[in-house]
Specification:
One of its GO terms (cellular component) is cytosol. Its EC number is 1.1.1.49. Catalyzes the oxidation of glucose 6-phosphate to 6-phosphogluconolactone. Residues 331-340 have a biased composition (Basic and acidic residues). The chain is an alpha/beta fold. It has 15 helices and 18 strands. It has helices at residues 38-53, 73-87, 97-103, 115-132, 149-158, 183-196, 212-222, 253-256, 261-278, 287-299, 309-312, 436-440, 447-457, 466-485, 502-509, and strands at residues 28-33, 61-67, 105-109, 138-142, 171-175, 202-204, 236-244, 313-316, 318-319, 321-323, 326-328, 346-352, 362-368, 375-382, 401-407, 411-419, 427-435, 494-495. The strands form 4 sheets. An 8-stranded mixed β-sheet has the order 8-12-13-7-14-15-16-17, with helices on both faces. Strands 3-2-1-4-5-6 form a 6-stranded parallel β-sheet. β4 (138-142), α5 (149-158) and β5 (171-175) form a beta-alpha-beta unit. α6 runs antiparallel to α14 (466-485) and α9 crosses α14 (466-485). The longest helix is centred in the last third of the chain and has 20 residues, at 466-485. The structure holds NADPH dihydro-nicotinamide-adenine-dinucleotide phosphate and the ligand O=C1O[C@H](COP(=O)(O)O)[C@@H](O)[C@H](O)[C@H]1O. Residues 34-40, 67-69, 111-112, 143-146, 148, 176-177 line the site of NADPH dihydro-nicotinamide-adenine-dinucleotide phosphate.
Length: 518
């Protein structure tokens, strides 16, 4: 069978020239463990459908859902069609393509610790090789409660589905976050997974890495000559990394109340942003070269002194408030959250990187739920000008700030000072903005599409390697330990819809700085 590539729409905008879709995955069966779950419904199946629409799925593919719910193949397909209709960026699933796609979808029902269920799975995979030409290639996607990751990996091996038992094709595994709940549990999980899979076969997903503006951090830094010379302690005053959300726990209170913002966002997504923005240029653009540099810079993060955790961090928990004019309940009123919960829904941490490039440049990281706006960004604040030429006209000039806007309004913005038109020399801060949507005339694909496609092609660049996961846990552990051990009597301490707790403002004020407004 052959696959036709969809030609990119004709470029009216010169920036679009050269955008081509040529990222077709290898023939394979993809097995989604946790196929009846929330992530599958909202993200993973819509992503598969859009990969099909974009001709990024190979002609020889098969999709297998696996979970306990007793679906037949047909009732699972019907369920998946509903989720595509509701959540796919391409709108309602259209015929005849949907029926063709649905033919490639099947379902295995059973508990993840049941050996017989894996035998059924093995039969389905062998059948797929015959019927769809999937060539023995298998991609297992673990979208299940993390407590089941190790069990599933062990059972795959028991059923003869381990990568080293596969004599005809490749076997890879995508593992959802969180990879562990602390350093020890992450190491224990790694021990179990690595008994069956080699590092090159393991794809630890961090969906932030699949976001276009996050991938663009490397392009901005290493495909331009003007930024890298000033990307260091001589010119940079400080760096702020923010991942602010307006949503609360969205029906995931049971998970979140045992996680909190530090585990849920800082240890993985925000730490990956830090690594990309602070790392040295990799020796090439291969997965290992990039991940070597990410690991190196994370290793250079100064461990937070356990005695100073409360000075170097801030935590918060939201109380009832309003967002976009609508009242929302406090965290402790959310379903499955303990009424006296000590879990932080906001975390801020100040880090230092001990290397030649970044010595003495503070990196301020923050993430929180139920804040005033959704906003993820990296802001590089440059130093003040060394000499004031313009006397009073230059009083109170803002420092230059380069902002990489990850979402929403994906783009890059440079704040600089300019003369206000008129007879007098009056200077004011202005900004030069690039927006991905209008600049390239395309809407970015959701991260899961990019990441699943990459795993099908064996490109691990946008997945987190074990050494980085371990190092990121190492960085947050002193904070986790101290926060867990100390009940915060001030909780809840910020109103939903606001800027976060006052303690977070004090963290920066102590250094004579302020957070950017959310
Ligand atoms: N949902 C989200 O927004 C996000 C989720 N994630 C991660 O994705 C993963 C999945 O999350 P989510 O979809 O929300 O979880 P859900 O709780 O919605 O789904 C869990 C899935 O696992 C299945 N399952 C659970 N226990 C068993 C078992 N013993 N045997 C067989 N199947 C079982 C369930 O099947 P059944 O109900 O049929 O028993 C269900 O399909 C988690 O690792 C989570 O941390 C990461 C980022 C965001
Ligand atoms: O991994 C997670 O990410 C989401 C935020 O993702 P975004 O793409 O909307 O920024 C967060 O809501 C969730 O709690 C967390 O588990």
């Amino acid at each position: 069978m052959t696959t036709t590539l969809t030609a990119p729409p004709q470029a009216a905008n010169p920036l679009r020239a050269g955008i081509a879709v040529n990222r077709i995955g290898d023939p394979c069966s993809i097995v989604f463990f946790g196929a009846s779950g929330d992530l599958m419904k909202r993200m993973l199946m819509p992503a598969m459908w859009n990969l099909r629409l974009g001709d990024i799925l190979p002609a020889n593919y098969a999709i297998v859902g696996f979970s306990r719910s007793p679906f037949s193949d047909q009732s699972f397909r019907d369920e998946m069609r509903k989720s595509v209709d509701e959540f796919s960026r391409s709108g309602l699933a259209k015929e005849p393509l949907w029926s063709d796609f649905a033919n490639h979808v099947s379902y295995v029902s059973g508990p993840f610790d049941d050996t017989d269920a894996y035998k059924k799975l093995r039969d389905v995979l062998e059948h797929n090789d015959q019927q769809f030409g999937t060539a023995g290639n298998r991609l297992f996607y673990l979208s299940t409660p993390p407590s089941l990751f190790a069990t599933i990996v062990g059972k795959l091996e028991d059923a003869g589905l381990g990568p080293h038992q596969n004599k005809t094709g490749w076997t890879r595994i995508i593992i959802e976050k969180p990879f562990g709940t602390d350093l020890d549990s992450a190491r224990a999980l790694q021990t179990e997974v690595s008994k069956v899979f080699d590092e090159k076969q393991i794809y630890r997903i961090d969906h932030y890495l699949g976001k276009e503006p996050v991938q663009d951090i490397m392009a901005l830094r290493f495909a331009n000559v003007i930024f890298e010379p000033i990307w260091n302690r001589r010119y940079v005053d400080s760096v702020q990394i923010t991942a602010a959300e307006t949503v609360g726990v969205e029906g995931r209170g049971g998970y979140y109340d045992n996680a909190g913002a530090l585990r849920d966002m800082i240890q993985n997504h925000v730490m990956n942003l830090l690594a990309l923005v602070a790392m040295e240029p990799p020796v090439n653009s291969g997965a290992d070269a990039i991940r070597d540099e990410k690991f190196k810079v994370l290793s250079a993060v100064r461990p937070i002194d356990r005695a100073r955790v409360m000075q170097e961090t801030a935590r918060g928990q939201y109380e009832a408030g309003s967002i976009g004019g609508k009242p929302v309940p406090g965290y402790r009123e959310e379903p499955d959250v303990r009424p006296d919960s000590n879990t932080e829904t906001y975390a801020a941490v100040k880090l230092q990187i001990d290397n030649w490039r970044w010595a003495d440049v503070p990196f301020y990281l923050r993430s929180g739920k139920r804040l005033g706006h959704k906003m993820s960004e990296i802001a590089i604040r440059f130093r003040a000008i060394p000499h004031r030429l313009f006397g009073e006209a230059g009083e109170g000039l803002d420092n230059n700030v380069l902002v990489m806007k990850i979402q929403p309004d994906e783009g890059i913005s440079l704040r600089f000072n300019a003369k206000v038109p008129g007879p007098k020399m009056h200077i004011r801060s202005v900004s030069m903005d690039f927006n991905y949507g209008t600049g390239f005339g395309v809407v970015s694909a959701p991260a899961y599409e990019r990441l699943i496609g990459d795993a099908m092609r064996g490109d691990a660049t946008l997945f987190t390697r074990w050494d980085a996961v371990e190092t990121a846990w190492n960085i947050v552990m002193p904070v986790l330990d101290r926060w867990t051990a100390t009940y915060d009597e001030n909780f809840p301490n910020y109103a939903a819809g606001g800027q976060g707790p006052a303690s977070s403002d004090r963290l920066l004020a102590a250094d004579g700085r302020e957070w950017r407004k959310i």
